[in-house]
TrEMBL record:
InterPro entries (alphabetical): CIMR_rpt, Man6P_isomerase_rcpt-bd_dom_sf, MRH_dom
Protein source organism: Caerostris extrusa
Main location per the UniProt record: membrane
Protein name: MRH domain-containing protein
Keyword annotations of the record: Disulfide bond, Membrane, Signal, Transmembrane, Transmembrane helix, Transport
Domain of life of the source: Eukaryota
Length: 226
């Protein structure tokens, strides 16, 4: 499935980010601007309707693929086995940080009318999982009384943006509880073949560099700084 995600910060009045304790979480890279919408996995024990669930993050699904029948402005949609579509709500407000669950929640409202007169809506709970780059949303619950579909998405995009400095080829991220130690890499030589050229990377010890490089964490990337 092809997704072309938006790689820049939004300039709309409802940005796809949230700030808490002076730390920012941006979901903007999950916004699909071209291609196909995200398809959610049904994580319940049973799927009696054999339906398909489509989601975009801070954007519309109705403009992607063949989902125009989801309804104008729809950000989440269900395609039932009988071929009918249900609009699960539109993106109207910024995501919110929930301190109790340590997650980010994005709510879509104003969907198709439900059987009890309410309008279908949906909630996506984003959970920080370092390294989960190409993960998919999971349907966890359907609340018929509240006319709400609930999804969970474990992804690295839900991790706070931050820069953390380390020394001696070690760095510890206290927010994620992860200790990075690259010292085992210092006794080897690594070959990178780019086609016409080959590059050889050696450790600081082998190159006899007395200055120990510093490691910086930029969200999901380790960067060496000499």
């Amino acid at each position: 499935m092809a997704h072309q995600a938006c790689m820049f910060e939004t300039s709309t009045d409802t940005p796809c980010s949230v700030t808490f304790k002076n730390r920012k979480i941006s979901l903007q890279k999950l916004l699909v601007v071209e291609g196909e919408a995200w398809v959610a996995i049904d994580g319940r024990f049973q799927n009696p309707n054999n339906a398909e669930y489509y989601i975009n993050v801070c954007g519309q699904v109705s403009s992607l693929g063949n989902l125009s029948n989801c309804g104008e402005g729809s950000s989440a949609c269900v395609l039932r086995a009988d071929g009918t579509y249900i609009n699960l709500g539109n993106f109207t407000t910024s995501p919110e940080y929930d301190d109790a669950s340590n997650s980010v929640r994005l709510k879509y409202i104003g969907g198709t009318q439900c059987s009890n007169g309410k309008l279908w809506n949906s909630v996506i709970e984003f959970v920080c999982r370092p390294g989960h780059i190409n993960s998919e949303p999971v349907l966890t619950r359907i609340d018929v009384t509240e006319c709400r579909y609930e999804f969970e998405w474990q992804t690295a995009e839900a991790c706070p943006e931050a820069q953390i400095d380390g020394t001696g080829c070690k760095v510890y991220d206290s927010n994620l509880g992860i200790d990075y130690d690259l010292n085992p890499l210092r006794s080897k030589t690594y070959e990178v073949d780019s086609g016409p050229y080959k590059f050889y990377l050696e450790s600081a010890n082998q190159l006899k560099i007395h200055h120990v490089p510093k490691i910086v964490i930029l969200r999901k990337t380790l960067v060496f700084v000499k």
